[in-house]
Design brief:
It is built from 14 helices and eleven strands. Strand 1, helix 2 and strand 2 form a beta-alpha-beta unit. The longest helix is centred in the last third of the chain and has 35 residues.
């Protein structure tokens, strides 16, 4: 009887102790959550709101931060032009006018050409390879070191997947057809096209349609079928080229003013990084889902799908390699990142040729 009473009392004591510990833990958690400050930031972007997928990457970061912080950490995203033009995001974040921005790093290669690697470079990495390099191959650490010179810390927060090769008013049959062509194309891809004889223009997304439609430019690339159709590019040009060899897996970054970042509680920093990573993975999945449907719609509507002539792609690859080598000669920092990236690329392509390309080729032929 005494033994049963002892066990009963022990059980009650254990439950009571567990309850007290749980309550104490909840109280401590509650106190910690309640002690976090209310913070309101602004986020400028390079995108019009009409492009719901690419602007949606910025919106998702903001929404998730609000949810995870219980409404205490809120960021309001602004479309290109609402506060600053779409190509001035880096400058605006750097000088602290706003705390953060969502953009493509290769828009700013004029400031430092190595920033192209944070987005995508011609004949570079696919989306999955890019993520592997950034998250596990030392890429993000390298890019954050570069961005620190601008008082900025960056995080991947979107990827469009392999892009298309652009819209052309006239068919391109050879290298000679590119001479003097006015084309909207940014980044190192623009540098390659310039050496192929193209008159390169850099325009934000919201300005492309009018320029193409009114003949200010003869060709333009943006992202892929879903966004391109939303911009109406198919109404301004008939020929839709592929592949987009200059952007095989472009990452979009959220840039944060480093001084503002360092003032954030560690809890908010962790939430921010988690939200950015979620946006990065989500955007790629969303584009892969939407683009297949939109491409079918475009073709049904009269768009002519055309593969780039082999001589253009071959010459473009030679020029791209020459640009990387030239930049490496001029800039030790570019060389360091390029050599590390090139080594990673060689290994990942060898692996993906075995595990993915062989399967993709079989499925394509069997379909």
């Amino acid at each position: 009887m005494q033994r049963r009473q002892f066990l009963t009392n022990a059980g009650i004591s254990a439950v009571t102790s567990a309850t007290l510990v749980s309550c104490q833990s909840q109280d401590k958690s509650s106190v910690t959550a309640n002690s976090l400050p209310e913070i309101k930031w602004r986020m400028v972007t390079s995108w019009p709101k009409s492009l719901d997928t690419i602007f949606g990457g910025a919106q998702l970061v903001c929404d998730r931060l609000k949810e995870m912080s219980g409404g205490k950490f809120t960021i309001t995203p602004y479309a290109a032009g609402e506060i600053v033009p779409g190509l001035e995001v880096l400058d605006t974040v750097q000088n602290g006018t706003v705390e953060c921005g969502h953009t493509a790093s290769y828009y700013y290669i004029g400031k430092n050409p190595v920033l192209a690697f944070a987005t995508s470079v011609p004949f570079g990495l696919t989306a999955e390879q890019q993520n592997a390099w950034l998250y596990h191959g030392g890429g993000l650490e390298a890019m954050q070191k570069v961005y620190s010179e601008f008082n900025i810390i960056n995080f991947p927060a979107g990827n469009t997947g392999a892009q298309m090769g652009g819209w052309f008013k006239k068919e391109i049959k050879s290298l000679g057809d590119l001479k003097g062509l006015k084309m909207r194309i940014p980044g190192l891809g623009g540098e390659v096209m310039a050496k192929l004889g193209v008159n390169v223009q850099v325009l934000p997304g919201g300005e492309i349609f009018l320029a193409l439609d009114r003949g200010a430019i003869d060709a333009a690339e943006w992202v892929g079928p879903y966004d391109d159709e939303k911009l109406g590019l198919n109404k301004a040009a008939q020929y839709y080229y592929y592949p987009g060899w200059w952007e095989p897996g472009p990452t979009l970054d959220v840039l944060v003013n480093k001084s503002a970042w360092e003032k954030l509680p560690l809890e908010y920093q962790s939430m921010f990084m988690a939200a950015a990573k979620e946006a990065n993975v989500n955007m790629l999945s969303q584009y892969n889902f939407l683009n297949q449907q939109s491409l079918a719609t475009l073709i049904t509507g009269g768009t002519k799908l055309v593969v780039y002539p082999q001589d253009i792609i071959t010459e473009a690859q030679k020029i791209a390699t020459a640009i990387y080598d030239d930049n490496s000669t001029k800039d030790p920092n570019f060389k360091a990142i390029y050599e590390q990236w090139k080594t990673f690329k060689k290994g990942i392509i060898k692996w993906n040729t075995i595990n993915e390309l062989s399967y993709a080729n079989f499925m394509a032929s069997s379909s």
